[in-house]
């Protein structure tokens, strides 16, 4: 409805517009509108070219502004209700545009990385202390796959696993480090029975 009323008044103005408005102001207004639309699009979407479908509607609206002014002037006192209606419609349209823009900007923001909280870290640490070495080794192998789906949490979990494995078998852990963490830790980390009292004597 906003566009229909705007174009109707502009066409009325075009009928009575002079040479300056028709052949000079209209093209200049359209060009300026296209330039502004391109600049706004680049500011909101860096690195992306503005499509022609974005340039054209804006250029048409700005090109019709001069005839619209002439049309409003030709309406005289009757232009007051038209101006009021246009103002209300513009307000509603602007509110909708602002809301849509806010949602777009919010959706484009990178999400904060998912990480374990301090409470979760303490809970996981207690859980790992209760696991056997074989279970810890299984968790270590399984956590490698989580690096692709949830890297931040996976890194935190692997740090806790490294701490626990080192406490269970310090000598085997050092041998594993020398061999490289990409190797399977089961080749060096001994089971609970073989590790003896290494885990039993550590501080809790």
Automatic annotation (TrEMBL):
Keywords: Membrane, Transmembrane, Transmembrane helix. The chain crosses the membrane at residues 6-32, 82-101. Residues 183-193 have a biased composition (Basic and acidic residues). Residues 183-204 are annotated as: Disordered. The keyword Membrane applies. Residues 195-204 have a biased composition (Low complexity). This is Uncharacterized protein. It comes from Geodermatophilus obscurus.
């Amino acid at each position: 409805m906003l566009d229909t009323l705007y174009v109707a008044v502009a066409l009325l103005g075009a009928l009575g517009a002079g040479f300056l408005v028709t052949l000079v102001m209209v093209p200049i207004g359209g060009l300026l509108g296209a330039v502004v639309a391109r600049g706004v699009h680049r500011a909101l979407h860096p690195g992306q070219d503005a499509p022609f479908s974005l340039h054209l509607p804006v250029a048409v609206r700005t090109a019709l502004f001069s005839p619209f002014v002439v049309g409003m002037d030709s309406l005289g006192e009757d232009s007051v209700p038209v101006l009021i209606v246009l103002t209300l419609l513009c307000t509603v349209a602007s509110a909708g545009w602002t809301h849509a823009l806010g949602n777009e900007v919010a959706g484009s923001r990178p999400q904060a990385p998912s990480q374990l909280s301090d409470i979760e870290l303490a809970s996981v640490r207690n859980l790992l202390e209760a696991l056997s070495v074989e279970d810890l080794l299984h968790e270590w192998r399984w956590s490698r796959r989580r690096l692709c789906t949830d890297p931040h949490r996976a890194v935190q979990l692997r740090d806790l696993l490294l701490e626990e494995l080192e406490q269970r078998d310090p000598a085997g852990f050092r041998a594993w480090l020398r061999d490289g963490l990409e190797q399977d830790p089961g080749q060096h980390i001994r089971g609970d029975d073989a590790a003896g009292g290494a885990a039993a004597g550590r501080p809790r």
